[in-house]
C-alpha cells in the first residue's frame, strides 16, 4: 500500500509539473506568433474567423520530456526500492519512442509553418512507426477478436505499423474544432494511465499523466481563453497520435514476464478510447472514394462538421463527441468482463454506425429545408403580407 501511495505522489507531481510548464510556455508562443505574424488563415472549412496561432503543439514535446524526466529523477533518488533493471529496459525502449516522436515533431513544425505534402507525412509516419517496433512494442495478441489470439512478430510488426499510421492520422483529422482532439486524447491518456498504474508499470503511468497535464493547460488556452487562444496544429496532433499508438499498443501487449495484469479484451479495450476518431476516419475516407475524390483531400464530411451543419454550436459539438468517446470507453471496459469480445465489437460498430446515420439524416433534412426556402422566398413573404392585412 505504501508503494502505491508513493507512486501516486510521483504521478501527481508529473501532472502538476506538466501543467505549470505548459502554462508558462503557451503565452510565450502566442506572443512570438503575434510578433512574427504566424497565424492559421481562416477558410471555408475552418470554424474560426480570427487570426490564431497554430503552433501550440510546439510546446508539447519539451513539456512532456521535462515533466517526465524530472519526475523520474526524483523517484529514483527518493525511492530506494526502485528496480533499476526494469527501469533500464523501459528507458531503452522509450529512447526509440522519443526518436519516433521527434521525427513527427519536426515534420509537424514544418507543416504548421510552410505546409507539407501528405506523401511526405506518410513517409515520416512510416519511419516513426519503425522506431515503435524497435522499442519492442507490437501487437502480439488479439485476445479472441475474429477468433485470433497469439500473433507472431512477423505478422504483428507490419500490423502495428499500419495501426500506428492509422491512429496518428485519425487524431490529426479529428482536430477540427476547439477542444475536440485534446478532449478525446485526454480521455485516452487518463484511461491508459490508470491501467498502467494498476499493472504497476509506473514509468508509463507517469508519461500518461505528464501528457495529460500538458493537454489540460492547452485545453484552457484553446477552448476557454479569449485573449490568448491557440491551436495545437499538426505538430501537436501528429505527436499525440503517435504517442497514443505507442501507449495503447504497449498496454494491450500480452507480457506475462513484466506484468500479470492485462485488460480484459486487450486490444479492443484499449482501442475503445480512440474508437470515435478511428471510425470517423474510415467513414470519411470511404465517402471520398465513393465520389471519386482524393481521400486525402480535406472536406466537411467529418462528424464534427456534420453536427455543426445540423445547427449545434462548436462547444456543444465538442462536448457531445467527447461524451460519446467516454461512454464507449467505459461501456466496453465493463462489458468485456461479461460479453464475448466479438459481440462487443459488433455492437460498437452498430451503435456508432446508427449514430452517424441519424446525424446524416438530420443534416440532409436541414439542407432540403434550406433549398426549399431558397427556391420560394417570395411566396413566403407574400403570405406574410397577406396575413398582416
TrEMBL record:
<dbReference type="Pfam" id="PF00953">
    <property type="entry name" value="Glycos_transf_4"/>
</dbReference>
<keyword id="KW-0472">Membrane</keyword>
<feature type="transmembrane region" description="Helical">
    <location>
        <begin position="122"/>
        <end position="140"/>
    </location>
</feature>
<dbReference type="InterPro" id="IPR000715">
    <property type="entry name" value="Glycosyl_transferase_4"/>
</dbReference>
<keyword id="KW-0808">Transferase</keyword>
<feature type="transmembrane region" description="Helical">
    <location>
        <begin position="265"/>
        <end position="286"/>
    </location>
</feature>
<feature type="transmembrane region" description="Helical">
    <location>
        <begin position="6"/>
        <end position="26"/>
    </location>
</feature>
<feature type="transmembrane region" description="Helical">
    <location>
        <begin position="90"/>
        <end position="110"/>
    </location>
</feature>
<feature type="transmembrane region" description="Helical">
    <location>
        <begin position="179"/>
        <end position="198"/>
    </location>
</feature>
<feature type="transmembrane region" description="Helical">
    <location>
        <begin position="55"/>
        <end position="78"/>
    </location>
</feature>
<protein>
    <submittedName>
        <fullName>Undecaprenyl-phosphate alpha-N-acetylglucosaminyl 1-phosphate transferase</fullName>
    </submittedName>
</protein>
<keyword id="KW-1003">Cell membrane</keyword>
<keyword id="KW-0812">Transmembrane</keyword>
<feature type="transmembrane region" description="Helical">
    <location>
        <begin position="341"/>
        <end position="359"/>
    </location>
</feature>
<feature type="transmembrane region" description="Helical">
    <location>
        <begin position="204"/>
        <end position="223"/>
    </location>
</feature>
<dbReference type="InterPro" id="IPR018480">
    <property type="entry name" value="PNAcMuramoyl-5peptid_Trfase_CS"/>
</dbReference>
<feature type="transmembrane region" description="Helical">
    <location>
        <begin position="316"/>
        <end position="335"/>
    </location>
</feature>
<feature type="transmembrane region" description="Helical">
    <location>
        <begin position="235"/>
        <end position="253"/>
    </location>
</feature>
<dbReference type="GO" id="GO:0016740">
    <property type="term" value="F:transferase activity"/>
</dbReference>
<feature type="transmembrane region" description="Helical">
    <location>
        <begin position="146"/>
        <end position="167"/>
    </location>
</feature>
<keyword id="KW-1133">Transmembrane helix</keyword>
Amino acid at each position: 500500500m505504501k508503494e502505491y501511495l508513493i507512486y501516486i505522489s510521483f504521478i501527481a507531481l508529473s501532472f502538476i509539473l506538466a501543467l505549470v510548464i505548459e502554462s508558462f510556455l503557451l503565452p510565450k508562443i502566442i506572443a512570438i506568433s503575434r510578433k512574427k505574424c504566424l497565424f492559421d488563415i481562416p477558410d471555408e472549412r475552418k470554424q474560426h474567423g480570427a487570426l490564431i496561432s497554430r503552433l501550440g503543439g510546439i510546446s508539447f514535446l519539451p513539456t512532456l520530456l521535462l515533466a517526465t524526466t524530472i519526475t523520474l529523477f526524483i523517484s529514483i533518488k527518493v525511492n530506494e526500492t526502485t528496480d533499476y533493471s526494469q527501469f533500464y529496459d523501459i528507458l531503452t525502449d522509450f529512447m526509440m519512442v522519443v526518436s519516433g516522436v521527434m521525427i513527427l515533431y519536426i515534420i509537424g513544425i514544418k507543416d504548421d509553418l510552410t505546409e507539407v505534402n501528405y506523401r511526405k507525412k506518410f513517409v515520416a509516419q512510416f519511419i516513426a512507426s519503425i522506431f515503435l517496433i524497435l522499442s519492442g512494442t507490437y501487437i502480439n495478441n488479439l485476445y479472441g477478436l475474429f477468433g485470433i489470439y497469439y500473433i507472431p512478430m512477423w505478422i504483428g510488426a507490419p500490423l502495428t505499423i499500419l495501426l500506428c499510421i492509422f491512429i496518428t492520422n485519425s487524431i490529426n483529422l479529428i482536430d477540427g474544432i476547439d477542444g475536440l482532439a485534446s478532449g478525446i486524447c485526454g480521455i485516452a491518456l487518463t484511461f491508459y494511465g490508470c491501467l498502467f498504474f494498476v499493472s504497476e508499470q509506473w514509468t508509463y503511468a507517469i508519461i500518461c499523466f505528464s501528457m495529460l497535464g500538458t493537454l489540460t493547460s492547452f485545453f484552457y488556452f484553446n477552448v476557454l481563453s479569449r485573449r490568448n487562444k491557440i491551436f495545437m496544429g499538426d505538430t501537436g496532433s501528429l505527436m499525440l497520435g503517435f504517442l497514443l499508438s505507442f501507449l495503447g499498443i504497449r498496454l494491450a501487449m500480452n507480457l506475462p514476464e513484466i506484468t500479470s495484469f492485462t485488460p480484459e479484451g486487450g486490444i479492443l479495450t484499449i482501442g475503445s478510447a480512440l474508437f470515435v476518431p478511428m471510425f470517423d476516419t474510415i467513414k470519411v475516407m470511404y465517402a471520398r472514394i465513393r465520389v471519386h475524390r482524393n481521400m486525402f483531400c480535406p472536406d466537411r464530411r467529418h462528424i464534427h462538421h456534420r453536427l455543426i451543419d445540423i445547427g449545434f454550436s462548436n462547444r456543444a459539438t465538442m462536448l457531445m463527441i467527447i461524451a460519446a468517446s467516454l461512454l464507449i470507453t467505459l461501456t466496453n471496459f465493463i462489458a468485456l468482463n461479461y460479453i464475448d469480445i466479438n459481440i462487443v465489437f459488433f455492437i460498437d460498430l452498430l451503435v456508432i454506425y446508427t449514430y452517424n446515420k441519424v446525424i446524416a439524416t438530420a443534416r440532409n433534412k436541414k439542407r432540403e429545408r434550406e433549398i426549399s426556402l431558397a427556391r420560394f422566398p417570395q411566396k413566403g413573404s407574400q403570405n406574410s403580407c397577406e396575413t398582416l392585412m
